[in-house]
Design a protein that fits this description.
Layout (H helix, E strand, L loop, with lengths): L6 H30 L5 H9 L3 H7 L5 H9 L4 H13 L7 H13 L3 H13 L7 H13 L3 H12 L8 H9 L6 H15 L4 H7 L6
Length: 217
């Protein structure tokens, strides 16, 4: 049996269908937006930072995740995102450059024990990049990062020791960390060997023997 509706009812039904389609489309678009802002996990972001690919990734994402990155840094205070947001602000990546705010966010990440944040601040102070050069302060940051196992920081710390900065009391720890370092990068391996050879000349033989102990002993 065919059901005939008055024209007014047909128009109303048509309008309802259009409304439902519009609502479905909105839900679909919202779903896509939610999918679009699924950022990297803390571990994924740390891997990007360690490979120095974090800023490149933000640009590859067409800068569409800026607000979410800021929220995770400023509101949620996730260390890796504080570091990322700080780096973006420091160098004007997808946002207006604000170096002072950038360094502040990096420092917040470092204060939470993020080794990469500590290493970068130490390197910046050693080089006088964005901040006034202060190699003694650099030693403090790099030593903290080194204690957390950051290999870049360990090498940079020894370089400062060899330049006469820091305390001789820390030589044994620095030697110990690099002596137990593992890397499949040939240049890094050669650099570590050079650091150990030079540092050994500044140490007492007994301290060198003690520093050659395995990690965690």
């Amino acid at each position: 049996m065919t059901l005939f509706l008055p024209k007014t009812s047909q128009f109303t039904l048509f309008a309802i269908v259009l409304t439902l389609l519009s609502v479905c489309s909105s839900f679909s678009q919202a779903a896509e937006e939610i999918k679009a802002v699924q950022l990297y996990s803390q571990d994924e972001l740390l891997r990007l930072i360690q490979r120095n690919e974090h800023l490149t990734q933000v640009v590859l994402d067409d800068c569409q995740l800026v607000q979410d990155i800021e929220a995770r840094a400023q509101t949620l205070k996730i260390p890796a995102y504080q570091f990322l947001w700080g780096d973006m602000l420091a160098w004007g990546v997808c946002v207006t450059a604000e170096p002072e705010r950038g360094i502040n966010f990096m420092r917040q990440a470092a204060d939470q024990g993020l080794a990469e944040g500590l290493e970068q601040l130490g390197r910046y102070y050693a080089q006088g990049k964005l901040v006034q050069q202060d190699k003694e302060r650099a030693v403090v940051f790099l030593r903290e990062a080194s204690m957390l196992g950051n290999q870049k920081a360990q090498i940079e710390l020894v370089d400062l020791f060899l330049d006469g900065y820091g305390s001789p009391y820390d030589y044994e720890d620095a030697y110990h960390w690099l002596y137990n370092a593992i890397t499949n990068d040939k240049k890094t391996h050669q650099k570590i060997t050079s650091c150990l050879t030079k540092l050994e000349k500044l140490m007492h033989p007994k301290a060198v023997r003690k520093a050659k102990r395995p990690l965690d002993t």
